[in-house]
Amino acid sequence: MSAAALEVREVSWAPRKSTQPVLHPTSFEVGAGRILGVVGPNGAGKSTLLRLLYRFQKPTTGTVRINGQDIWAMPAQVAARQVAAVLQEQAAAFGLSVREIVRLGRTPHRAHFAANGAEDEAVVARVLDRLNLNALTARDFGTLSGGERQRVMVARALAQEPQILILDEPTNHLDVRHQLEVVSLIQTLGLTIVVSLHDLNMAIGICDDILVLKDGHPQGFGPPQTLLTDTLVSRTFHVDARRRHLAPCGTAHFSFALPN
User: Fold this and answer.
1) β-strand 217-222 against 23-30: which pairing, if any?
2) pTM surpassing 0.85?
3) Strand pairing partners for 164?
Protein backbone atom coordinates (compact mmCIF):
# COMPACT_ATOMS: atom_id res chain seq x y z
CA MET A 1 0.00 0.00 0.00
CA SER A 2 1.13 3.52 -0.78
CA ALA A 3 -0.24 6.92 0.19
CA ALA A 4 -1.75 9.48 -2.16
CA ALA A 5 -2.25 13.23 -2.08
CA LEU A 6 -5.81 14.44 -1.52
CA GLU A 7 -7.01 17.79 -2.87
CA VAL A 8 -10.45 19.17 -1.98
CA ARG A 9 -11.57 22.32 -3.75
CA GLU A 10 -14.71 24.29 -2.84
CA VAL A 11 -16.80 21.18 -2.09
CA SER A 12 -20.29 21.70 -0.75
CA TRP A 13 -23.36 19.53 -0.39
CA ALA A 14 -27.07 20.17 -0.03
CA PRO A 15 -30.00 17.74 -0.19
CA ARG A 16 -32.06 17.77 -3.36
CA LYS A 17 -34.72 20.47 -3.48
CA SER A 18 -32.98 22.31 -0.65
CA THR A 19 -31.42 25.74 -0.94
CA GLN A 20 -29.61 25.40 2.39
CA PRO A 21 -26.29 23.51 2.20
CA VAL A 22 -25.38 21.05 4.94
CA LEU A 23 -21.75 21.68 4.03
CA HIS A 24 -20.67 25.05 2.65
CA PRO A 25 -17.72 25.43 0.24
CA THR A 26 -14.67 23.86 1.85
CA SER A 27 -11.12 23.53 0.56
CA PHE A 28 -7.96 21.84 1.86
CA GLU A 29 -5.08 19.61 0.80
CA VAL A 30 -3.64 16.55 2.54
CA GLY A 31 -0.14 15.52 1.51
CA ALA A 32 0.62 11.85 0.90
CA GLY A 33 1.04 10.01 4.18
CA ARG A 34 -0.32 12.79 6.38
CA ILE A 35 -3.17 12.54 8.88
CA LEU A 36 -5.96 15.12 8.76
CA GLY A 37 -8.32 15.43 11.71
CA VAL A 38 -11.81 16.84 11.12
CA VAL A 39 -13.28 18.29 14.31
CA GLY A 40 -16.35 20.25 15.28
CA PRO A 41 -19.51 20.01 17.36
CA ASN A 42 -22.42 17.73 16.50
CA GLY A 43 -24.09 18.84 13.27
CA ALA A 44 -20.96 20.58 12.04
CA GLY A 45 -20.90 18.64 8.73
CA LYS A 46 -18.06 16.24 9.53
CA SER A 47 -19.78 13.04 8.36
CA THR A 48 -21.18 14.83 5.31
CA LEU A 49 -17.68 15.86 4.28
CA LEU A 50 -16.36 12.33 4.72
CA ARG A 51 -19.17 10.92 2.57
CA LEU A 52 -18.01 13.21 -0.24
CA LEU A 53 -14.43 11.98 0.15
CA TYR A 54 -15.26 8.27 -0.15
CA ARG A 55 -17.69 8.91 -3.03
CA PHE A 56 -20.89 7.99 -1.24
CA GLN A 57 -22.38 11.37 -2.15
CA LYS A 58 -21.46 13.60 -5.06
CA PRO A 59 -20.59 17.19 -4.12
CA THR A 60 -23.11 19.85 -5.08
CA THR A 61 -20.15 22.02 -5.99
CA GLY A 62 -16.40 21.52 -6.15
CA THR A 63 -14.06 18.60 -6.71
CA VAL A 64 -12.28 15.86 -4.78
CA ARG A 65 -9.01 14.80 -6.41
CA ILE A 66 -6.61 11.97 -5.62
CA ASN A 67 -3.15 12.55 -7.05
CA GLY A 68 -4.73 15.16 -9.29
CA GLN A 69 -7.58 12.99 -10.63
CA ASP A 70 -11.23 13.77 -9.91
CA ILE A 71 -12.76 10.76 -8.13
CA TRP A 72 -16.01 11.24 -10.08
CA ALA A 73 -14.11 11.01 -13.37
CA MET A 74 -13.00 7.44 -12.58
CA PRO A 75 -15.09 4.25 -12.45
CA ALA A 76 -16.51 3.42 -9.03
CA GLN A 77 -14.43 0.24 -8.83
CA VAL A 78 -11.24 2.19 -9.46
CA ALA A 79 -12.19 4.74 -6.81
CA ALA A 80 -12.81 1.90 -4.33
CA ARG A 81 -9.25 0.70 -4.88
CA GLN A 82 -7.95 4.12 -3.86
CA VAL A 83 -10.26 5.16 -1.01
CA ALA A 84 -11.56 2.96 1.82
CA ALA A 85 -13.80 3.99 4.70
CA VAL A 86 -14.47 2.75 8.22
CA LEU A 87 -17.78 4.12 9.42
CA GLN A 88 -19.50 4.49 12.78
CA GLU A 89 -22.36 2.31 11.59
CA GLN A 90 -21.39 -1.35 11.15
CA ALA A 91 -23.66 -3.31 8.83
CA ALA A 92 -25.13 -6.61 9.98
CA ALA A 93 -22.70 -9.44 9.29
CA PHE A 94 -25.37 -12.08 8.59
CA GLY A 95 -23.33 -14.80 10.26
CA LEU A 96 -20.09 -14.04 8.43
CA SER A 97 -16.80 -14.92 10.07
CA VAL A 98 -13.99 -12.44 10.65
CA ARG A 99 -12.05 -13.83 7.68
CA GLU A 100 -15.12 -13.55 5.43
CA ILE A 101 -15.67 -9.94 6.49
CA VAL A 102 -12.05 -9.03 5.69
CA ARG A 103 -12.31 -10.82 2.34
CA LEU A 104 -15.05 -8.37 1.35
CA GLY A 105 -12.33 -5.75 1.13
CA ARG A 106 -10.98 -7.51 -1.95
CA THR A 107 -14.23 -6.92 -3.90
CA PRO A 108 -12.94 -3.86 -5.84
CA HIS A 109 -10.00 -5.96 -7.11
CA ARG A 110 -12.14 -8.79 -8.48
CA ALA A 111 -13.75 -8.97 -11.90
CA HIS A 112 -17.53 -9.18 -11.54
CA PHE A 113 -18.38 -12.25 -9.42
CA ALA A 114 -14.98 -13.95 -9.59
CA ALA A 115 -13.82 -15.79 -6.49
CA ASN A 116 -10.83 -14.65 -4.48
CA GLY A 117 -7.54 -15.76 -6.02
CA ALA A 118 -4.24 -16.58 -4.40
CA GLU A 119 -3.15 -12.92 -4.39
CA ASP A 120 -6.39 -11.89 -2.69
CA GLU A 121 -5.96 -14.55 -0.01
CA ALA A 122 -2.37 -13.45 0.55
CA VAL A 123 -3.50 -9.86 1.10
CA VAL A 124 -6.19 -11.00 3.54
CA ALA A 125 -3.65 -13.10 5.45
CA ARG A 126 -1.22 -10.18 5.71
CA VAL A 127 -3.91 -7.83 6.98
CA LEU A 128 -5.21 -10.31 9.56
CA ASP A 129 -1.68 -10.76 10.82
CA ARG A 130 -0.95 -7.03 10.91
CA LEU A 131 -4.01 -6.33 13.04
CA ASN A 132 -3.46 -9.33 15.32
CA LEU A 133 -6.71 -10.98 14.25
CA ASN A 134 -5.44 -14.48 13.49
CA ALA A 135 -6.97 -15.92 16.66
CA LEU A 136 -10.39 -14.58 15.65
CA THR A 137 -10.57 -15.54 11.97
CA ALA A 138 -13.25 -18.22 12.44
CA ARG A 139 -15.33 -16.22 14.93
CA ASP A 140 -18.76 -14.93 13.97
CA PHE A 141 -18.41 -11.16 13.58
CA GLY A 142 -21.56 -10.65 15.64
CA THR A 143 -19.98 -12.26 18.71
CA LEU A 144 -17.05 -9.84 18.91
CA SER A 145 -16.54 -6.97 21.33
CA GLY A 146 -16.75 -3.37 20.12
CA GLY A 147 -12.97 -3.03 19.98
CA GLU A 148 -12.57 -6.30 18.10
CA ARG A 149 -15.24 -5.31 15.59
CA GLN A 150 -13.50 -2.01 14.95
CA ARG A 151 -10.21 -3.79 14.24
CA VAL A 152 -12.00 -6.12 11.82
CA MET A 153 -13.58 -3.19 9.97
CA VAL A 154 -10.19 -1.51 9.69
CA ALA A 155 -8.79 -4.81 8.39
CA ARG A 156 -11.52 -4.99 5.75
CA ALA A 157 -10.65 -1.44 4.66
CA LEU A 158 -6.93 -2.25 4.49
CA ALA A 159 -7.69 -5.34 2.39
CA GLN A 160 -8.84 -2.90 -0.30
CA GLU A 161 -5.20 -1.76 -0.43
CA PRO A 162 -6.29 1.88 -0.52
CA GLN A 163 -4.09 4.92 -0.75
CA ILE A 164 -6.47 6.99 1.38
CA LEU A 165 -8.32 5.81 4.47
CA ILE A 166 -11.39 7.62 5.82
CA LEU A 167 -12.29 7.02 9.47
CA ASP A 168 -15.54 8.36 10.92
CA GLU A 169 -15.25 8.61 14.72
CA PRO A 170 -13.18 5.40 14.99
CA THR A 171 -12.93 5.58 18.81
CA ASN A 172 -16.63 6.21 19.42
CA HIS A 173 -18.16 3.86 22.05
CA LEU A 174 -14.80 2.20 22.76
CA ASP A 175 -13.25 1.88 26.21
CA VAL A 176 -9.91 3.53 26.97
CA ARG A 177 -7.78 0.49 26.07
CA HIS A 178 -9.43 0.02 22.69
CA GLN A 179 -9.25 3.75 22.00
CA LEU A 180 -5.49 3.59 22.56
CA GLU A 181 -5.23 0.56 20.26
CA VAL A 182 -7.05 2.38 17.46
CA VAL A 183 -4.93 5.52 17.91
CA SER A 184 -1.72 3.47 17.84
CA LEU A 185 -2.88 1.71 14.69
CA ILE A 186 -3.73 4.97 12.91
CA GLN A 187 -0.25 6.30 13.54
CA THR A 188 1.47 3.25 12.02
CA LEU A 189 -0.53 2.66 8.82
CA GLY A 190 1.54 4.89 6.54
CA LEU A 191 -1.51 5.89 4.51
CA THR A 192 -3.09 9.26 3.88
CA ILE A 193 -5.79 9.39 6.54
CA VAL A 194 -8.78 11.64 7.11
CA VAL A 195 -10.36 11.03 10.52
CA SER A 196 -13.25 12.74 12.25
CA LEU A 197 -12.90 12.94 16.02
CA HIS A 198 -14.87 14.32 18.95
CA ASP A 199 -11.85 14.28 21.27
CA LEU A 200 -9.91 17.44 20.50
CA ASN A 201 -6.92 16.43 22.60
CA MET A 202 -6.72 13.09 20.78
CA ALA A 203 -6.79 14.96 17.47
CA ILE A 204 -3.90 17.15 18.61
CA GLY A 205 -1.91 14.05 19.53
CA ILE A 206 -2.24 12.12 16.27
CA CYS A 207 -3.01 14.57 13.46
CA ASP A 208 -0.61 16.51 11.25
CA ASP A 209 -3.34 18.99 10.28
CA ILE A 210 -6.79 19.89 11.58
CA LEU A 211 -9.91 21.08 9.77
CA VAL A 212 -12.43 22.77 12.05
CA LEU A 213 -16.10 22.83 11.01
CA LYS A 214 -19.07 24.57 12.59
CA ASP A 215 -22.63 24.63 11.25
CA GLY A 216 -21.32 23.38 7.91
CA HIS A 217 -18.79 26.20 7.58
CA PRO A 218 -15.00 25.73 7.71
CA GLN A 219 -13.51 27.68 10.61
CA GLY A 220 -9.86 27.01 9.89
CA PHE A 221 -7.32 24.54 8.53
CA GLY A 222 -3.71 23.96 9.49
CA PRO A 223 -1.32 22.36 11.98
CA PRO A 224 -2.96 21.93 15.39
CA GLN A 225 -0.11 23.75 17.16
CA THR A 226 -0.91 27.02 15.38
CA LEU A 227 -4.56 26.62 14.37
CA LEU A 228 -6.19 25.64 17.66
CA THR A 229 -6.20 28.78 19.72
CA ASP A 230 -8.28 29.32 22.85
CA THR A 231 -10.46 31.75 20.92
CA LEU A 232 -11.14 29.45 17.96
CA VAL A 233 -11.93 26.42 20.13
CA SER A 234 -14.10 28.41 22.53
CA ARG A 235 -16.08 30.00 19.70
CA THR A 236 -16.52 26.74 17.77
CA PHE A 237 -17.62 24.54 20.66
CA HIS A 238 -19.38 27.18 22.79
CA VAL A 239 -17.15 26.47 25.79
CA ASP A 240 -14.47 28.23 27.76
CA ALA A 241 -11.32 26.52 26.41
CA ARG A 242 -7.85 26.89 27.87
CA ARG A 243 -4.78 25.46 26.17
CA ARG A 244 -1.89 24.25 28.30
CA HIS A 245 1.43 22.61 27.50
CA LEU A 246 2.18 19.46 29.43
CA ALA A 247 5.71 19.06 30.84
CA PRO A 248 8.21 17.69 30.01
CA CYS A 249 7.21 16.96 26.38
CA GLY A 250 5.40 20.26 25.84
CA THR A 251 2.36 18.58 24.25
CA ALA A 252 -0.65 20.88 23.99
CA HIS A 253 -3.76 19.93 25.97
CA PHE A 254 -7.09 21.71 26.26
CA SER A 255 -9.23 21.94 29.34
CA PHE A 256 -12.88 22.94 29.02
CA ALA A 257 -15.53 24.60 31.14
CA LEU A 258 -19.01 25.93 30.50
CA PRO A 259 -18.96 29.68 29.84
CA ASN A 260 -20.25 31.96 32.56
Assistant:
1) unpaired
2) yes
3) 83, 192
